[in-house]
Amino acid sequence: MLRFLTAGESHGPELTAIVEGLPSRLPIRSALIDEQLRRRQQGHGRGGRMRIESDRVEITSGLRFGLTLGTPLTMRIRNRDWENWKTKMAVEGDPPPEAKPVTKPRPGHADLAGVLKYNHDDVRNVLERSSARNTATLVAVGSVARQLLAPFGIRIFSHVVEIGGVEAKKFPKTLEQIPDAAESSTVRCADPEAAEKMVEAIDQARREGNTLGGVFEVVALGVPPGLGSYAHPDRRLDGRLAGALMSIQAIKGVEVGLGFTAARLPGSEVHDEIGYDPEKGYTRDTNHAGGIEGGVSNGQPVVVRAAMKPIPTLYKPLRSVDIHSKELFQASVERSDTCAVPAAAVVGEAMVAWVLAFCFREKFSGDSFEEVEAQYRAYMEMVSRR
Fold it and tell me: Where, by residue number, does FMN bind (predicted)?
């Protein structure tokens, strides 16, 4: 079974991720992981942390001469800012005088809930781990998943469709054209006119000391039919995707295909009619279901959208209460972005890649890449004859 575990604090020495369940002899390139980490750090509206960190992965186990060993793959990403935090984030010893506790929880963060749950008297003990800095490990893990899926023709990309109320409406004619259009935009929007307005909205929010959220879409092409299951609720592909995307910091809503729009339309305008072509097999003229029916991939592109709330750290802070004195204060200000929707889209890609890889391994097992490949080919041949 494919699974992963991450660890690390935002200003600690490093972030760590362990991936277990990869077949042996799978080619893995750290340069491809670094490229995804770079993409995560881009986007108009990012804050000062992105000028400090330049993330690169170091693989310390599970790989030899570029091929997986079938054993746990360990990755670490060093925090360059650790040099400035060695004393205040020391692993051992008594707290030094300069390590003053943070006592003012920020509205919208995990601060207060975490303090109450773990009985902390310093909010920093919560915010260091709950920080979106830790999405770097998710992107690294997702990049490994991409490299598992790529040999089977599965391609994953994203694009931003809304920021601060500005919606993208003019998209390229085909899904395949969206990635290039999105990557050429500083807000990762494939609609140039909307992208320009998004940049203006972000700049205005920055001047006002405010933040903006938005919506991004993740698309997976080449997904074979049969991933997931209708047999049990916890094996549904759409349920797993929704859970994975909602696990990303600041994501407050997920939809598949038409999503909430489907609730406002009659069934005749929602469901995808089925056709058959002797050469292509089963066909669809529409993909309102987002490539998933009954919790199972149906061979169409998998399309999901996620809504990101505005980042809760504001340069014009909201009111909060000191957890020690109980006095009203303006919430603490940590270094923050104005808008991180373009970056969140990259994290969303990673989570979609991970879920698809998980379901892929669930269906096509085997201890070596060759075994997985043989199972995949046999299954696809069987499907083509149906």
Answer: 129-131, 249-250, 294, 309-313, 335
Contact 339, 212 (CB under 8 A): yes
What CATH number did the domain enclosing 323 receive?
3.60.150.10
Average pLDDT, the chain: 94
* Look-up of token digits 């339309």: 265
378: CB partners within 8 A, 6+ apart: none
* Size of the chain in residues: 386
- For CA atoms 124, 350, 4, 58, give the dihedral sign: negative
- Separation CA 25–CA 373 (nearest Å): 11
- Is the pTM of the predicted complex or chain greater than 0.90? yes
| Angle, helix 135-149 to helix 341-363, in steps of 10 degrees | 50
Rounded distance between C-alpha atoms, residue 317 and residue 322, angstroms: 14
* Contact (CB, 8 A) for 218 and 306: yes
φ/ψ (deg, to 5) at 64: -140, 125
Residue 376 structural domain:
3-384
Lowest mean pLDDT among 48-52, 80-84, 162-166, 229-233: 48-52
Task: Quote the CA–CA distance of 7 and 13 in Å, as a whole number.
Answer: 11
Q: How many domains are there within the chain? A: 1
Cα separation, 253 vs 151, whole angstroms: 31
Distance CA 140, CA 355 (A): 14
Distance CA 191, CA 171 (A): 6
Model confidence pLDDT, tens digit, residues 62-84: 999 999 999 999 999 999 999 99
CB neighbour list of residue 237: distance below 8 Å, 6 or more residues apart: 227, 228, 229, 292, 295, 296, 297, 302, 355, 359
∠5-337-169 over CA atoms, to 5°?
A: 95
Within 8 A by CB and 6+ apart from 175, the residues are 219, 221, 301
What is the DSSP code string of 205-248? HHHTT----EEEEEEEESPPTT-B-SSSGGG-HHHHHHHHHHTS
